Amino acid sequence: MKSGKVVYSCLAAATCIALVTCLAGALTHHHASSGSVNLAVGKDGGNKSSPLLYGMMFEEMDHSGDGGIHGQLLQNNGFQGSTLGLTSYAPVGDAQISQDFLSPVSAAIKSSLSVSVPEGVSDYVGFANTGYNGVPVMNATYNTSFWIMGDYFGTINIQLIGSHSGIVYADHNLTVQSMASTFKQFSTSFESKESPDGDNEWHLTFDGSKIAGSSLNFGYIQLFPPTYHNRANGLRNDLATVLAEVNSTFLRFPGGNNIEGLQVDSRWKWNTTIGPLVDRPGRDSDWFYPNTDALGLDEYLWWCEDMNMTPLLAVWAGKSYGDILSGSELEPYVEDIMNELEYILGNSSTPNGKLRAQNGHKDPWKVDYVEIGNEDDLTHGCATYPDRFNQIYKAIHDKYPHVTLVASNGDYNCLPSPLPEGVIIDLHLYRQPDDFVALFNQFDNQPRNQSVMIGEYGCRNTTDAKGTYWSFMQGSCSEAVYMIGMERNSDIVKMAAYAPMLEHFGIISWSPTLYGFDSSPGSITPSTSYFVQQMFASNKGDTILPVKTSSEFGPLYWVASRTGSQYFVKLANYGPDEQNVTVSIPDTHAGRLEMLAGTQFQGNQPHNIAVQTVTSTVQGDGGKYTVINNKNADKDVARE
Ligand SMILES: *[C@@H]1O[C@H](CO)[C@@H](O)[C@H](O)[C@H]1NC(C)=O
Ligand SMILES: *[C@@H]1O[C@H](CO)[C@@H](O)[C@H](O)[C@H]1NC(C)=O
Ligand SMILES: *[C@@H]1O[C@H](CO)[C@@H](O)[C@H](O)[C@H]1NC(C)=O
Ligand SMILES: *[C@@H]1O[C@H](CO)[C@@H](O)[C@H](O)[C@H]1NC(C)=O
Ligand SMILES: *[C@@H]1O[C@H](CO)[C@@H](O)[C@H](O)[C@H]1NC(C)=O
Ligand SMILES: *[C@@H]1O[C@H](CO)[C@@H](O)[C@H](O)[C@H]1NC(C)=O
Ligand SMILES: *[C@@H]1O[C@H](CO)[C@@H](O)[C@H](O)[C@H]1NC(C)=O
Ligand SMILES: *[C@@H]1O[C@H](CO)[C@@H](O)[C@H](O)[C@H]1NC(C)=O
Ligand SMILES: *[C@@H]1O[C@H](CO)[C@@H](O)[C@H](O)[C@H]1NC(C)=O
Ligand SMILES: *[C@@H]1O[C@H](CO)[C@@H](O)[C@H](O)[C@H]1NC(C)=O
């Protein structure tokens, strides 16, 4: 949980009303139209609220990691995976480039870029990398590094330059002395000016006259803008900061489908994602492009630590999209999980704990939640999951009894019977707006002895995976309604993670996502759902409170909570009509109102953030607040 320091620009006996409203258009799911609703928030007596409730899910897809939140900006920088060839590379000047498998940079990085220079060349020549649909060029300090093999003593020139404009934004020299038969790494940093667009590339050139008639090899190139918390191999500061502002309580990683592998051997393997980058081979992933794994196990855990999120680590549980392993065939992989957990949780006298310490985290990581597999009710996993689950559960629970284990689905046909005590089941829901609203009371009548996580959810207006879709108010509002249902029942709904998190708008396989970006400045675009998540995660008490009213749910939904003397009321209006809501909140006289409002299909797109949260102060005469949601959220939204 966030440290609990909720700072509001309002008075001690504070209250916060978070209102998500969707207006206009014909919505089918409401009982009443415009109306007057009176809510009286009680002081005591509600369900306990899970401190972890609002979290986030991350897996490498849509270039959310490589070319996304991970800071490294050059694509195909280590020629990893089997599909990219020379993608993103081009020669600069009179030189020829090719991928050279005879000169690997390391055992993991199995090739390098050969740059050969014809006889008679006297200029600077070299190669370019065009990044992930361009390189974002900001007014900032960049770090860059590369490996070279070949006999060269002289200047290397690095530039950030417009691909079509030819405008040079950064121009930097360093002197290197490289060797004929060994790769050596060089790093440097430099300042850049901002480019007005994303159509930029990174250039590395050298004095061609010194190599004419011969060649140099370059490998594992990197370019980093400023990183979050200034970490080496860190997250992009700009993209990470926007995420941190959501105030999510946990991060579910590294998948998702992406942990499973198209085949057993191409699954996500923890021990190939740690240590020096040049020793990480990368892999062909589940989402149609190779992963560099530069965002690896330790980087995920740093991310959690830096954003004060509780890690929820998923481990591979025998299911790939090819073979599924169970019984004795699974045993070595159970051992592998135990090695992974020793790496994370073991002290530095254990072999794997020692390795973690060498890799930069002396103390064990704090991991209290582990999920066994992903969606094992699907893709032929069901029949063997109960056994696979029990096998892995036993190994982990015996050694680490403090770890809460999560089953990867909620279909009792695909779960052990009985489930061991304390296990959380994980449901995933991508639904159309009306369907989410229909599930508002999903948890009201569930047994109170089975904890639930919604490990992935988000409004998807289509089942067609291809194409770019944008979150829109009706959909985000339906998520808010569903979340109110979760929060009212957060004695059993322990955790919920909106998904997917992030997309590079130019290179998408699944959308919409919480937020997105491209290579141009100012392109970071929070969706309408981003603001819903932010409002809900940032305004949550530790106890849910009863609310007295003569109104029924729909189209207005509500939940109230409290931490000490601070009250929180969340409202969602899933309807086209204005609602006049009077809320009485005991012992308070002023508060803060956050409102997100828009018309049915309104949403945010790059360089056009049409809908965002509007915050105002509200006065409550005798603890009574009147809130009228309005199409123009920034107009008169609260009256006494
Ligand atoms: C570039 O960034 C520096 C440091 O943040 C700042 O002082 C300077 O004003 C910026 N320049 C432009 C043109 O934005
Ligand atoms: C880099 O070095 C080359 C060759 O000496 C020189 O022409 C160029 O001006 C230098 N560029 C910078 C930015 O110092
Ligand atoms: C960038 O390089 C400098 C040294 O040139 C180093 O001190 C700094 O930590 C690096 N920053 C990151 C984010 O890697
Ligand atoms: C990772 O662990 C497996 C055993 O689980 C082992 O076979 C493999 O060699 C290890 N790989 C690395 C890079 O350490
Ligand atoms: C480290 O962990 C091992 C295995 O769990 C244990 O035997 C040992 O006592 C621990 N050492 C320290 C210093 O805590
Ligand atoms: C607590 O949970 C029960 C069972 O679902 C539900 O009926 C009740 O409304 C919840 N209480 C509050 C205050 O939300
Ligand atoms: C929860 O309680 C019901 C009966 O109320 C029982 O059938 C079920 O097995 C229990 N589940 C767990 C996980 O204890
Ligand atoms: C959502 O789906 C409905 C039904 O298919 C369609 O009428 C509507 O145009 C879609 N809206 C958006 C914003 O995608
Ligand atoms: C939300 O996150 C922001 C940025 O990290 C922080 O300033 C704020 O205090 C947080 N709010 C809550 C309620 O945790
Ligand atoms: C809202 O409702 C309150 C109490 O029900 C009433 O006094 C007030 O006039 C209403 N305001 C509007 C704008 O309808």
UniProtKB/TrEMBL annotation:
GO biological process assignments: arabinan catabolic process; L-arabinose metabolic process
Gene3D superfamilies: Glycosidases (3.20.20.80)
Pathway membership: Glycan metabolism; L-arabinan degradation
EC numbers for this chain: 3.2.1.55
Keywords: Glycoprotein, Hydrolase, Signal
Keyword Lyase recorded: no
Catalytic activity from the UniProt record: Hydrolysis of terminal non-reducing alpha-L-arabinofuranoside residues in alpha-L-arabinosides
Similarity section: Belongs to the glycosyl hydrolase 51 family.
Protein name, UniProt field: non-reducing end alpha-L-arabinofuranosidase
The species this protein was found in: Penicillium subrubescens
